[in-house]
Amino acid sequence: MSPTRRLKEFFTRQPVPSTAFQLTPSQLTGVHLEGRDHRSGRHIILPLRPGSLEPSFDRANINDPAHVSARVDEALAKLGVRDGSLSLLVPESVVKSTILSFDELPESQAERERLFQWRLRKHMPSLPEDIRLSADVLSAGRPRRVFVSVIHRPVLAEYEGLFARRGARVRDVGLATLSLSNLLDLPSEPSGILINIEEDCLSLLAIAAGEVAFFRSKPFLTDGREGRSLARRMEHAAREINNTVTFLEDKEKMRVETLWLRAAPSGADEDSASVLKPLVPLALKPIEPSRWPGLKAREARILAPLLGQLA
């Protein structure tokens, strides 16, 4: 099982269900796959009222529980999901993730978790006590690289509660960028950076020789109307992409050959990729799900993380 396949099962190790939802500050999306080949099914894209959900690692996220809950009810009904288990992609800024290196790892899982928490708190001293941790060892060589992620339990409970009140259980929680990596044929792809642009944040996942090598997620600066514009967000994204390419090539000695892009900031009628292309050093290769070829281009971009999560 590849590292990115393991990362799909982000906070649990159970089989991935056939239904997945993604929540962002502006919308709730969902996919329910049917049949043995999972090549048919239903999908929804529902807008959320502005300000009803504001992602944060350590503060309450859902400002309008009645509205967001009503949207979840509507989504479950339209997808025909009455109960059972599902996957959920939470906003990237809700989770803190990093890649840590170790010369040796303890055999005991409990000892490993204590070691990971100790190292994390050296990097992030303000971490709250009540966290849920997930860790995936990325390589068997030396040093041992581990992808470690944490979420604040009260925040996780907010998201899980939206579905639990309807009898649905969130079986695994993930991030859109990690799920998108499942849409790439990594063994045949060159080393590069997967770029995921949402309305509120930018995430970069570097992959070298089929292995996750680097991850960074940063919120967009949104001061005023100008800060929220597509052009302003793409300028911000280009700076981060260019800095990351330089860092990987100069410091990590990684040759970046490809930039894979999924750009789906909601409310943007313009093609985000066309705005970004002149600002970055390499050609952009769109991430397009092969499943459901009848989807419109905008729908495919928006639903791509969910299709990757269920891949």
Describe the structure.
- This protein is of the alpha/beta class.
- The chain has three domains: 10-92 and 153-177, ATPase, nucleotide binding domain (Nucleotidyltransferase, domain 5, 2-Layer Sandwich); 94-150, no CATH class; 185-286, Nucleotidyltransferase, domain 5 (2-Layer Sandwich), CATH 3.30.420.
- It is 31% helix and 29% strand.
- The chain contains nine helices and 13 strands.
- It has helices spanning 3-8, 65-79, 109-123, 153-164, 176-180, 224-227, 230-250, 272-276, 297-309, and strands spanning 19-23, 27-34, 40-47, 84-89, 95-102, 131-137, 144-152, 168-174, 192-197, 201-208, 211-219, 258-263, 284-286.
- The strands form three sheets. It has a five-stranded mixed β-sheet with strand order 3-2-1-4-8, with helices on both faces. Strands 11-10-9-12-13 form a five-stranded mixed β-sheet, sandwiched between helices. A three-stranded antiparallel β-sheet has the order 5-7-6.
- Strand 6 and strand 7 (144-152) form a beta hairpin.
- The longest helix has 21 residues, at 230-250.
- It starts with a helix and ends with a helix.
- 39% of the residues are buried.
- Mean pLDDT is 86; it is low at 1-13.
Write the layout of secondary structure elements.
Blueprint: H1 3-8, E1 19-23, E2 27-34, E3 40-47, H2 65-79, E4 84-89, E5 95-102, H3 109-123, E6 131-137, E7 144-152, H4 153-164, E8 168-174, H5 176-180, E9 192-197, E10 201-208, E11 211-219, H6 224-227, H7 230-250, E12 258-263, H8 272-276, E13 284-286, H9 297-309
Parallel strand pairs: 1-4, 4-8, 9-12, 12-13
Antiparallel strand pairs: 1-2, 2-3, 5-7, 6-7, 9-10, 10-11
